[in-house]
């Protein structure tokens, strides 16, 4: 059976467990099998450009080591660390959750909003949106003001995400919202119900695309 490896580039096992739960609906009889892994060398949360740059080398080593075992790789961090470098070292599909989350959002609404973890994350995300050439479809991006490890506190996180999601919808005109961190995965369904517009969990979006690539044998093309 062909397999897909979803890699959490931070070292937080709780985030990996959330990612594993998020991709569970995509597991099906006949595969591809979906495995999740934690990058032990990563920081507890990827929150700065230095964190992003620092995990590229370990990610390259991991993909090289696992290339023979997996048909595709998903990088489960909203900064898509090392995405283009990883695509240079393997002909297997490599999907970044930010790129896939945004592209999925563009199929669900005209203007997308992004929920970031921290205010300092937003300039990094905006640079990436600019590089993708989709800035004219961005309604806006707002932070919840919580770090990656703090997202596990459901009482604080969910209420804040609802506030931010409603502000993106009502004040900025977003008609679809992208969750800007893999650590938010557990809140997608209740958040979508609370704000009444589509909410994209980017690891689900990237894994769904990876399944399509593997099933259609687009690997290496």
β-sheet strand percentage = 15-25%
CATH topology of the largest domain: Rossmann fold
Cα end-to-end separation: 20 Å
N to C succession of SSEs: EHEHHEHEHEHEHEHEH
Structural class: alpha/beta
Supply the number of structural domains. Answer: 2
The major pleated sheet works out as: 4 strands, parallel
**Which whole number gives the mean pLDDT?**
93
Helix content: 40-55%
Number of strands: 8
Number of H- or I-type helical stretches? 9
Rg computed from alpha carbons, rounded to a whole number of angstroms: 16 Å
Q: Report low-confidence residues grouped into runs of 5 or more.
A: none
The assigned CATH architecture of the largest domain is: 3-Layer(aba) Sandwich
CATH class of the largest domain: Alpha Beta
Shape designation: globular
Order of adjacent strands in the largest pleated sheet: 2-1-3-4
Describe the structure.
The strands form 2 sheets. This protein has a 4-stranded parallel sheet with strand order 2-1-3-4, with helices on both faces. The longest helix has 17 residues, at 154-170. Helix 1 links the parallel strand 1 and strand 2 (33-38). Helix 5 (97-106) crosses helix 9 (202-215). Helices cover 43% and strands 16% of the residues. The chain is globular and about 50 Å long. The chain is of the alpha/beta class and 221 residues long. The chain has 2 domains: 3-96 and 204-215, 3-Layer(aba) Sandwich (Rossmann fold); 99-201, Rossmann fold (3-Layer(aba) Sandwich), CATH 3.40.50.
């Amino acid at each position: 059976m062909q397999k897909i490896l979803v890699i959490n580039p931070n070292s937080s096992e709780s985030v990996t467990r959330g990612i594993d739960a998020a991709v569970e609906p995509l597991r099906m009889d006949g595969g591809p099998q979906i495995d999740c892994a934690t990058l032990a060398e990563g920081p507890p949360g990827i929150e700065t450009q230095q964190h992003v740059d620092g995990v590229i080398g370990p990610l390259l080593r991991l993909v090289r080591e696992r290339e023979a075992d997996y048909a595709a790789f998903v990088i489960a961090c909203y900064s898509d660390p090392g995405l283009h470098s990883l695509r240079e070292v393997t002909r297997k599909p490599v999907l970044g959750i930010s790129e896939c989350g945004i592209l999925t959002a563009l199929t669900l609404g005209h203007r997308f909003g992004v929920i970031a973890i921290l205010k300092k994350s937003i300039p990094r995300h905006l640079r990436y949106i600019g590089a993708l050439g989709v800035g004219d479809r961005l309604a806006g991006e707002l932070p919840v003001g919580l770090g990656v490890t703090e997202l596990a506190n459901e009482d604080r996180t969910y209420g804040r995400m609802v506030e931010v999601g409603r502000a993106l919808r009502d004040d900025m005109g977003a008609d679809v919202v992208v969750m800007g961190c893999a650590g938010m995965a557990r809140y997608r369904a209740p958040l979508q119900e609370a704000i009444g517009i589509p909410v994209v969990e980017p690891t689900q979006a990237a894994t769904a695309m990876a399944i399509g690539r593997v099933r259609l044998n687009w690997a290496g093309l």
